[in-house]
Structures are given as structure tokens and as C-alpha cells.
Design a protein that fits this description.
heterodimer; A: 306 residues; Alpha-Beta Plaits; four-stranded antiparallel beta sheet; 12 helices; 33% helix; B: four-stranded mixed beta sheet
Amino acid sequence: MKSAFKDSFLKRAEELMGKESKEYLSYVEKPLRKSIRVNTLKISPDDFIKRMKNWKLEKIRWTDCGYFVDEKGLGNTLEHFLGYFYVQGASSMIPPIVLNPEKNEIILDMCAAPGSKTGQMAAMMENTGLIVANDVRLDRIKAMSTNLQRIGAINLIITRNDGMAFHRRGITFDKVLLDAPCSGEGMFRKDYKVAKYWSEHLVKDSSSIQKSLILAGFDCLKENGQMVYSTCTLSPEEDEEVIDFLLRKRENSAVEKVKITGFKTRSGISEWRGKSYSDEVKKCARIYPQDNDTEAFFVSKVVKKA
Amino acid sequence: MNKILSGKEKRDILSEMNSHYGIDIVPDVVFVESGKGKVWIVNKSINKIDISNLNIERFGTYVLFRDKYGVRFTIEGSQIFGNYAKRNIVEIQKTDIDKWIRGFDLDIETETNKYIIIKHKDDFLGCGKGAKGIIQNYLPKSRRIMKL
């Protein structure tokens, strides 16, 4: 049977993973397990579990408030209406965990829509401090606004500015989350149609945008500030190459090793299609669907040295 | 146009909340009002950055709406302030939840013809308005659920 994926995508998967690419592709074709995050701004995980005793919930190992759930019509429940939980991909909960926003910090979520990670961070910060949830597209901002209303977070503002606006205006942050727009192969499991739009050209274009965004994000960090750069793609051009670009452009940047308890990750790769990247990129984390039965993801942590 | 409210403007809202609902807490947050009577609250940490030149689409959470009938809490507003209300709060039955979240009025007599907080056990479900033997439903269409 002919694969639903483009030949160029299949070739890339084989180059990237060798023999393992078959297993990878078999996972990419599998529908994603549904998962939710309990909104701790409104209810504790214990109270939620008691309340949903008829639901089959399986705790997600790498977070205190995430669960795999085997239920239909999650959006048509009283608990969703009340904002007690949020439907969120299990691996998309990882970037906020790696960034670890703390109470009273000032955070920039640079490409925040649809707001799931913003809501997660707002809860981690227990409604203290401030998150500037930024995006550029009005339609996406409207959707984010609806989502974040339900969360009930009062520690955020939603802004519509280009990524460079914050540095240009002298605004600095303790931490920055840059969950960058990407070619999106991690989304294939969630929405198979996304695969139709994937192309080598999109990878190249995305990489170029990501490079300008990562500089913008880094430049508005305070000294010793931390930034998490993540994508839902495994294309090295959009992942390690972007980190390597930052390291070359900003001497005061450094990569920190990403460690996630209860979650298998692979090291970043330092060579791809004839290009060599700094060995520092090996500290980044590649998340392969076959390792944890999640979406594909890439997560890295950068610090701004004093 | 969003406007960050002054101390006096904020006190006016809190006074209205106090006289109608008996809510006497003074939250240490910034109040922001649109020209149409909608009020949002956001943390005071907003004062730590210069937002003057940013294009801000939204502040924190939309918590209440004000008009001639008083203060009407949103679902989130009722969840934040409802526990402190001493009056004008109605406990509905489980069977009424289904009607309420679908956007229908409730056949419940109230002592007020103003806004009233709706709750069921620990769940706060926003505000309705008392009117001739019913509670009028103000849930926005975007939040209604047609089938539980």
C-alpha cells in the first residue's frame, strides 16, 4: 500500500532514523492518544479524579496534572464548560515543564496561540507574576483569548506584536518560551491532513523565520534569563540548526541539558545533510513518537550568560 | 478602548459588588474596563513592565459586566468572587444545570429583579437575572453546550 506521506518526507525520515524510520512512521500513522491537563487554577488533580470517577484516566508520567483519557466528547462536558480541564497534547506539556516558570516571574510566550502552554504556565505560577502571551495572527489570538478565558488566569496579557517589538521597546523577561511555528510533522498524529502541507520548501522557510524569532526572544531576556525553544518537528533545519545559529550570533548564549523525569528523549544531532553544528546542540532533546507514544517534538533550553 | 481603572473607579465597582452581593474582599489586582461595561482583572505585576507601546488585545480574565441592573459576573468572575457572596446567590438543582449550560432560562422565582449568582454545590456557573418567576440566562453562545 502506498504511504500517505510524500516521498521527500519518507526519504528524510530514513536519513534521520535509519532502520528505526519504519517504527517511527508506524507511530506517525497512529492516531494520537487523547490527553488533558487539569486546570489547577480551578480544581486540584485529586478533586478532579474524585469527580471524574467514571472516566478512565491514566496519569501522564512527566507531569503532575496531565492524564491520558479514553473518552469521547470531552468538550461537551460540564467540567470543560467550567474550565476544570483543558485538552492538551501530552508532549506539548513538556516545554513549560522544561522552562519551569516560577511564582512572580515575568515571562514572554512569544508565539502563544492557541494558548495551551500559556495556560499551563499560568497554573504553574499559581496566578502570580505575569505572562505576556504574544502572537501575530488575529484569528489565532481570538481562539487563544477564548481558551484562556476558560482557564481563568489573571496573570497574563495577550499582545499582538512582531517578535522584535519587545527588545525594541526595552522590555526584558526572566524567561521566554518560544514554541516556534514549524513545518509541523508532530501534528500529523493529531490531524493527518497536516501531512499534505508538509514540504522541503516549508522546512526551509520555517527555519528562516525561526532564526529571526530566536534572536528576538534571546535579546529580550534578562541577564541569566532562560529561554526554551521548541517545535513540533524533527527537522534538524528547524531544531539544532536554529540553536546553532543562535550560538554563533550571540556569544553570551549557552545551551543547558534538557532532562525530563519519566520521559525518554534522544540527544540533539550535530550533523545533517553535510552541515555540522556545535556539539552543544547535543544537549537538546528530540522526542520521538515511538519512545513515549506522543507527538514528535524538539525541546531545548538556552541561557543568557551575564 | 480598554482603560486601566483608577483607585476610585475600582472602589466604585467593589462597592457595587458589596452592596448587591455582600462581597467584601478587596482583591489586589488591576481592573481594566472596556467602553461597553466589560471589566477584566489582571495581576499587579503588569506594572513591572512598560506596556504603553504594546498592542494589547486582552488583559487577564473577563470577570464582570456592568449596566443599570448592576454587576453581572462571567463564569470565571463567579468562580473568583462567588465564594465571598453572602446574598443574591441561588443554588440550582442538578437537573437545572443541563438547561443552564445550554443557554435556557430557569423557572426559578427570585427575590431580586437584578443579577444573581448561579451555583450548584461547589460549581459556580455565572450570573443570571431575576425576572417574573424566571432567571434569565446570559451565557454567551460560545460557552453554551448543546448536549451534555
